[in-house]
Amino acid sequence: MSDLSKLCIHSITTKPWGVEEAARKYAAAGVAAMSVWQDAVASSGMSHQAAGNRIRGEGVDVACYVRGGFFTALEGIARQKAIDENKRIVDEAAAIGAPLVVLVCGATPGQSLFESRKQITDGIAATIDHAAAAGVKLGIEPLHPMYADSRSAVNSMNQANAICDEVGHSNLGITVDVFHTWWDERLESEIAVAGAKGRLFSFHICDWKNLPEDMLNDRGLMGEGVIDVAGIRQWVRNAGFDGYEEVEIFSNIYWAMDQDEYLAKIKEAYLALG
Ligand code: ZN
């Protein structure tokens, strides 16, 4: 499909632009949707509701609010605080009109990944009814294992599917990001499982450059690295997903360039996927 009707861009991808400027530029470029990061709203000076209306007023849909999670902690009181914080994030998502909050689930040095995953399951279970009442879904985003030290103990689709099974709520599903999951030999089958269970909620694209200079902020444009982005997209589509394809790129290199030129590159790389 070589059109832009499924193209969504994360506000952080074009970080130098504020949320209003990004909405205007995306609209002019024919981009269908924006996934909005909390900090972008905070720095806009607008309320969440006003920001959502502003973006939609440009003809750009709000796909997702980023991000909740970080449910793990050594102390119970900190875990309760995280649950309260996630409920607040859900309320912000509802105010901006986002149907989904992506979860970076958390990991805490000093406790095992098994313990962290148990805490994540408990934290999500304690938040999901609040999300459902607000009309917001939660998407567990498995992160690459290189982030298992302190960002997320959920590192594979299999682990994410297991948590979804355990919590067992239709408002809980999974966000598949090619950057985090491309290495997984079970990726296709676990995507199929998630699709069959109606929990493939969103899909993030970018590329893993051969020998990135920075493990966080040197992601590539689709086609620039080693991931078969079109192939994984086909697996996701085969599993029934027909939502937005969200370009999420953290890159010191791209943030430093002219953002209009960068946006043109994003479109070109997206359309080259076929
Ligand atoms: Zn992502």
Provide structural commentary:
The protein has an eight-stranded parallel β-barrel, surrounded by nine helices. The model has no long low-confidence stretch (mean pLDDT 97). The relative contact order is 0.14. It is globular, with a radius of gyration of 18 Å. It contains eleven helices and eight strands. Helix content is 45%, strand content 15%. It has 274 residues and is an alpha/beta fold. The chain has a single domain, classed as TIM Barrel. The site of zinc ion has 4 residues, from loops.
Topology:
Layout: E1 7-10, H1 19-29, E2 33-37, H2 38-44, H3 48-57, E3 61-69, H4 76-96, E4 100-104, H5 113-133, E5 137-140, H6 157-167, E6 172-177, H7 178-181, H8 187-196, E7 200-205, H9 229-238, E8 245-247, H10 252-255, H11 259-271
Parallel strand pairs: 1-2, 1-8, 2-3, 3-4, 4-5, 5-6, 6-7, 7-8
The structure holds zinc ion.
Zinc ion binds next to loops.
